[in-house]
Amino acid sequence: MPSFTNFLRITRKKFEFEQGKRRSVMKLKEALKGILEDNELKKLIASYDIIGDIILIRIHPDLESKRVIIADALHKIHPRVRSVTAVPLYSYTDKLYRTKDLEVIWGDENLETTHKESGCFFRVNPRSVFFSPRLSYERMRIAKKVLHGETIINMFSGVGCFSIVIAKNQPRTKIYSIDVNPYAYEYMKKNVRLNKMEGKVIPILGDVREELKKLGLEGVADRVLMPLPEQAHSFLPFAARALNLDKEGAGSVIHYYDIAQGRKEDGLFKMSFKRAKDILASALENSLRVEIEEQRIVRSVAPRKYHIVLDLHIERTE
Ligand SMILES: C[S@@+](CC[C@H](N)C(=O)[O-])C[C@H]1O[C@@H](n2cnc3c(N)ncnc32)[C@H](O)[C@@H]1O
After folding, report:
1. How remote is the CA of residue 4 from the centroid of ligand 1, in Å?
2. 98 shares its domain with 224
3. Closest ligand 1 atom number to CA of residue 154
């Protein structure tokens, strides 16, 4: 459990992040008042991501012809930005690597950049790897839960952000960080060096379903991270086999991400929890207790559709 001071710190960080986002949204709407028609302003998706010195903004199909005007306004608000890039609203997302098609509207075509978050530096190129600055609060939330000396497996580590933020906060940990995308793996190696996390964050290239067994990582983990919300459920048996459930004491934790549909107030987490519990029970032949340590909405992805996380506490019962 995080201490009260940690709780206050991460709550303040979340509040500042949300406030900053709200200010940027207001600024863009104001900058475009009188330039875009009122009905166009209504279609403007005014929240956007800043990754290092790159802006990523989703553009409504009806505003395609206004892309350059929008980019110009963004550049005025953020003069140090090097590229403004459009993510078409219904753009294709690569199923395996979770990358999106990006189109530079203004500035440099080279989207490789360095993003700073929670005192860590991440080299990324959003064209070839998944990266979301919107997960910064979630990364810190997990990092604050990690205890001294834990062995952790990050099953879908991307360029290593969760792993590096954890290792920065809790240096006495070992985090096996697996990704199947060779570009993400190369950036992860760079980021491990950049943040001086050699020996703490161990980059591994490959499909987690094969690598865990091949590298003898079954039965070793105090904690498993599964940040692949669309598909994490199908990897739960592998996460279960990675856990060290035979140690004395505290049990193990899986940070299980999922996509949940429904109304917030109607037991949004129930279905996800039931599915996860059933899969885990059959993977470990029912000899375990699974409880929710914490549950939260990470973000909303569409009307009544949420990216959620369940922190599952798991113990053997016999
Ligand atoms: C949503 S991204 C999360 C990346 C990272 N955790 C982050 O938050 O920046 C999911 C990642 O899982 C990786 N991935 C998908 N299937 C995989 C598999 N079978 N084994 C290992 N990695 C996989 C993708 O390449 C992608 O980088």
Report:
1. 32
2. no
3. 6
* Rounded alpha-carbon distances, angstroms, from residue 226 to 45, 53, 71, 74, 231: 29, 28, 35, 34, 9
Considering the domain architecture, whether residues 160 and 86 belong to the same structural domain is answered as no
* pTM (predicted TM-score): 0.91
Pair (200, 63) in one structural domain: no
Which amino acid would we find at residue 224? V
Domain identity same for 106 and 134: no
Q: Is residue 235 part of a domain?
A: yes
* CATH assignment at residue 87: 3.30.300.110
Whose CA is closest to atom 20 on ligand 1? 207
Q: Which residues line ligand 1 (CB under 6 A)?
A: 96-98, 130-131, 135, 156-158, 161-162, 178-181, 184, 207-209, 227-228
Ligand 1 nearest atom to the CA of residue 157, by list position: 6
Q: Which amino acid is at 29?
A: K
Which structural domain range is residue 148 located in?
A: 128-316
| Domain-embedded: residue 81 | yes
Looking at the structure, do residues 40 and 151 belong to the same domain, yes or no?
Answer: no
Q: Residue 126 C-alpha to ligand 1 middle, in angstroms?
A: 13
In sequence order, the 6+-apart residues with CB closer than 8 A to the CB of 90 are: 61
Mutate to test the pocket of ligand 1, among 152, 156, 186, 213 (most ligand atoms within 8 A of CB): 156
- Confirm if 268 and 308 have CB atoms less than 8 A apart: yes
**Ordered per-residue pLDDT tens for the chain, 318 residues:** 456 666 666 666 666 556 566 666 678 999 999 999 999 999 998 889 999 999 999 999 899 999 999 999 999 999 999 999 999 777 788 999 999 999 999 999 999 999 999 999 999 999 999 999 999 999 999 999 999 999 999 999 999 999 999 999 999 999 999 999 999 999 999 999 999 999 999 999 999 999 999 999 999 999 999 999 999 999 999 999 999 998 777 789 999 999 999 988 778 999 999 999 999 999 987 678 999 999 999 999 989 999 999 999 999 887
Regarding whether 202 and 55 lie in a shared domain, the answer is no
Task: Using the atom order of ligand 1, give the atom closest to the CA of residue 129.
Answer: 27
